[in-house]
Amino acid sequence: MSQPQTSISIIIPVYGVTLYVERCLRSVINQTYKGPLECIVIDDCSPDDSMDKVQRLIDDYTGDIEFRIITHEKNKGLSEARNTGIRAAKGEYLYFLDSDDEISIYTMELMAAKVAEHPGVDMVMADFYLAVPNDANIRYHKGNYIQGLKACKKALLRPGLLPDYAPNKLIRRDFIIDKNLFFEPNLLHEDNLWKWMLAKHVESIALIHHSLYIYYSNPLSIVNAYNPQKWKDRITIAQKKTDSIDSICTGQQIRHTLEFILNLDSVLRYVYAGKKEYPEQIAILKDLVTKLSKSNRKAMDIRSWLSILFLKLELNLPISVDNKLYWPIHRASKMFAASPRP
């Protein structure tokens, strides 16, 4: 007797993507998966004809996928659009798909197969294909299955091992609901904070080493558009991370947060050079580094301590005598948590 197939809800927020949304929807329509599949399209008050194109595709569709459109009365942003989808979804597992990207026709079939292989797995994740002038297949983790809170947390916190993006992950809906893993409203780069919170709870990750998600660089997307608010929001994310470091894998959390602050410092130096906002923003970063150093001194390992030292030097913060003893070791071992890049 065959096992019941996994029910999946694909959540697609739509806003200002008239050039891309048909490509996205067709990649869902063409899925080879024969199990229960619904696609929830969130109309976040798109100002163009994106939803007209969505409606035409759905009206012409005659397959088994259940399409639903939910319309916001006013624009609420990507986070709230995804949250709307989470609350409305009926599937056992959720899959977030950005409306300017697409997925392989085999995505749902292969991900559902991983769930069948590992019943109750918290999250399934695949490699992805980066559609840029020099096309690239991106693989992050070499393993096939990660189990245990500590092991999953280490994997999620290591730079470059598992990406920050919410898309390309199949996640149990009841897990998201039970752990209150909704997206922070009114926050740009919300995926970064969401993965940080995800890492506190995930106990099993199944990995697929095929590029199932096709990411396109949209020049009009939030990531690529110039918006000073996104730098302010990244400072907010740094503050939230600093304030929520817990006792499991403390060293990794510290290094992850320091890398985030270091990269943010480099960007702020580049974007706000000579502008009046710069001293105030750097002062916040200095306070965060000082707070990390003081509040987690006992929990820090040598790499965390050296990373703190590097950031203190970068931000011109005072260094104690005992810290100075570690500087030659730091230089010799080259154990930087991250390198600054503008």
Describe the structure.
The N and C termini lie far apart (57 Å). The radius of gyration is 21 Å and the shape is globular. 39% of the residues are buried. With 342 residues, the chain is of the alpha/beta class. It is built from 12 helices and 10 strands. Helix content is 44%, strand content 17%. Strand 6 and strand 7 form a beta hairpin. Strands 1, 2, 3, 4, 5, 6, 7, 8, 9 and 10 form a 10-stranded mixed β-sheet that branches. The model is unreliable at 319-342 (pLDDT under 50).
Structural class: alpha/beta
What is the tally of helical segments? Answer: 12
Order of helices and strands: EHEHEHEEHEEEHEHHEHHHHH
Distance between the termini: 57 Å
**Portion in beta strands:** 15-25%
Question: What does the largest sheet look like?
Answer: 10 strands, mixed
Mean pLDDT: 82
- The parts where pLDDT drops under 50 for at least 5 residues are 319-342
Rg calc: 21 Å
The helical percent reads 40-55%
